[in-house]
Specification:
seven-stranded parallel sheet; Sc_DH/Rdtase_CS; 258 residues; SDR family oxidoreductase; binds nicotinamide-adenine-dinucleotide; SDR_fam
Length: 258
C-alpha cells in the first residue's frame, strides 16, 4: 500500500523530468508531499508534465534547458530557492545513450555524453551544496546505471560516464557527510522507458529485445519507472539518513548474474 508524506514539505529538483524515470519519480514524489522543480530540454513534454502534476494538485515549477549548460543549472537552483526557499533533495537524472564502437565513436559524441551525463551532475552539486550547507543538509541522488560496472560492446562513453558518476557520488559523500549532505547513486538495469523503446526499434522491434532482457535480467522483464522511483524515494527521504556513498541497484539481479 502506498505511503503518503514521506517527502512532506521537501523542495526537490529533478532533471530529465519530462519523461521516463524522471517523470515517474516526479509523480511519486508529488504523491509523497514534495514541492518540485522539473528540469528538461523538451519544452512541450515539460509543459505537459507540469500540467499533469498541477492537475493532481501538486506544487510544481519548471526550468526548460539543457543540463550541460551552467545557466540551466543556475536557473534551476535559483527557481527552487525563489519558489520554496530551500533545496532538500536533488535527483540528477538526465542522461543520454548514443552508442558506437570506440574506433568509430565521434569525439563530439564523447564530449556530449560526458557533458550531459557527468559534468551536469558535477555542476549541479557545485551549485546546490552551498545552499544545502546553509540549511544544515540535504540529499543528492545521482542516476548511474548497472552499466557503470558491467557493459557490452558499443556503450563507449555511456559506460565511462556512468562509472564516473559513481566516483563523483562517493567523493561528495565522503566530503560532506559530516555536514548532513548525503549523496548516493541509483543503478538500474533494463527499465521500460523511451530510451529502451529506441533500443528495441533499432533491433527491429520489442520482440527482438525481449530475449536479451530475459538473458541479462533474471527478473525476466524490464523494471517500471515506479519501481526505480521507489528506490530514489528511499534515498531522498529521511528514512535513509545513515546511507551515503552507496549505489542502490534496481536491476532485477542483472549485476548478480554471470
Ligand atoms: N531506461 C533504462 O533502462 C535506464 C537504465 C539505467 C539508467 N538509466 C538512466 O536513467 C536516466 C533517465 O533515462 P530514461 O530511461 O528515463 O530516459 P528518457 O529518454 O525516457 O528520459 C530522459 C529525459 O532526460 C531529458 N534530457 C536528455 N538530455 C537532456 C539534457 N541535456 N538536458 C535536460 N534534459 C535532458 C530528456 O528530454 C528526457 O525527458 C538516464 O540518465 C539514463 O541513463 C536508464
Amino acid at each position: 500500500m502506498a505511503q503518503r508524506g514521506r517527502l512532506a514539505g521537501k523542495s526537490v529538483i529533478i532533471t530529465g523530468a519530462a519523461s521516463g524515470i524522471g517523470l515517474g519519480t516526479a509523480e511519486l514524489f508529488m504523491e509523497e508531499g514534495a514541492k518540485l522543480v522539473l528540469v528538461d530540454l523538451q519544452p512541450e513534454m515539460l509543459e505537459q508534465a507540469v500540467t499533469r502534476l498541477h492537475d493532481a494538485s501538486g506544487e510544481c515549477v519548471s526550468v526548460c534547458g539543457d543540463v550541460s549548460e551552467p545557466y540551466t543549472i543556475t536557473r534551476a537552483v535559483q527557481r527552487a530557492i525563489e519558489t520554496y526557499g530551500k533545496i532538500d533533495v536533488v535527483f540528477n537524472n538526465a542522461g543520454i545513450m548514443p552508442t558506437g564502437p570506440v574506433t568509430e565513436y565521434p569525439d563530439e559524441s564523447w564530449d556530449r555524453v560526458m557533458a550531459v551525463n557527468l559534468k551536469s551532475m558535477f555542476m549541479m552539486c557545485k551549485m546546490v551544496i552551498p545552499e544545502m550547507l546553509k540549511q544544515g543538509g540535504g540529499s543528492i541522488v545521482n542516476m548511474s546505471s548497472v552499466m557503470a560496472g558491467l557493459t557490452e560492446p558499443g556503450y563507449t562513453a555511456y559506460t565511462a560516464s556512468k562509472a564516473g558518476i559513481i566516483g563523483l557520488t562517493k567523493e561528495i559523500a565522503v566530503s560532506y557527510s559530516e555536514q548532513g549532505i548525503r549523496c548516493n547513486a541509483i543503478c538500474p538495469g533494463w527499465v521500460d522507458t523511451e530510451m529502451n523503446r529506441k533500443v528495441a526499434e533499432d533491433m527491429g522491434g520489442m520482440d527482438k529485445l525481449q530475449p536479451l532482457i530475459k538473458r541479462q535480467q533474471p527478473l525476466g522483464r524490464m523494471a517500471t519507472v515506479r519501481e526505480v522511483g521507489y528506490a530514489v524515494l528511499f534515498l531522498a527521504s529521511d528514512e535513509s539518513t545513515a546511507v551515503s556513498g552507496s549505489c542502490l541497484y534496481v536491476d532485477g539481479a542483472s549485476s548478480a548474474s554471470i
